[in-house]
């Protein structure tokens, strides 16, 4: 093997190492809503999620049906592992109510949400206020009308 062959070999090694870079997962927290009714359910979910590679900590709040996994994990794999237990699981669908523009709108409000939380929805604002004052709008208009003798006046 001559100098030219050695250079080709070294450059091939260098270029192949760039092709096969390993992607490192970032430390993140994944929150799930998992239906758990008893200690057995909770233990089953804990066992399935703690066995995932990269998990650093696992917290289960059965009262809120919430599981928090922290580690070098992917949300999709954590969700898949939770569903593999046979339990109904989804990514945590709630946010604190003070982070939502209209927390008591029918799309956000959820009876099953833990106290202080509402369902996370992307509120679509079409720029009209008709959706806010859609019911009984007429009495408010006539309240300040000049034609109404009992109307309020603003001076």
Automatic annotation (TrEMBL):
Q: Which GO molecular function annotations are given, in alphabetical order? A: metal ion binding
Give residue ranges for domain HMA. 27-90
InterPro entries assigned = HMA_dom, HMA_dom_sf
The UniProt record lists the keyword Metal-binding: yes
SUPFAM superfamilies listed in its UniProt record: HMA, heavy metal-associated domain
Q: Does the keyword 4Fe-4S apply?
A: no
Q: Looking at the Swiss-Prot or TrEMBL record, what is one Pfam family this protein matches?
A: HMA
Gene3D superfamilies linked to this entry: 3.30.70.100
Key words, A-Z: Metal-binding
Q: What is this protein called?
A: HMA domain-containing protein
């Amino acid at each position: 093997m001559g100098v030219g062959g050695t250079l080709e070999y070294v450059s091939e090694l260098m270029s192949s190492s760039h092709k096969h870079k390993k992607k490192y997962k970032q430390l993140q927290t994944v929150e799930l809503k998992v239906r758990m009714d008893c200690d057995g359910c909770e233990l089953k979910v804990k066992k399935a999620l703690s066995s995932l590679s990269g998990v650093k900590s696992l917290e289960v709040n059965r009262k809120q049906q919430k599981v928090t996994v922290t580690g070098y994990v992917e949300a999709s794999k954590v969700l898949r592992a939770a569903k593999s237990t046979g339990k109904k699981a989804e990514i945590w669908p709630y946010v604190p109510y003070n982070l939502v523009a209209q927390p008591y709108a029918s799309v956000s409000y959820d009876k099953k949400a833990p106290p202080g939380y509402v369902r996370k929805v992307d509120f679509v604002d079409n720029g009209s206020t008709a959706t806010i004052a859609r019911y009984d709008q007429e009495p408010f208009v006539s309240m300040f009308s000049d034609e109404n003798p009992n109307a309020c006046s603003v001076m």
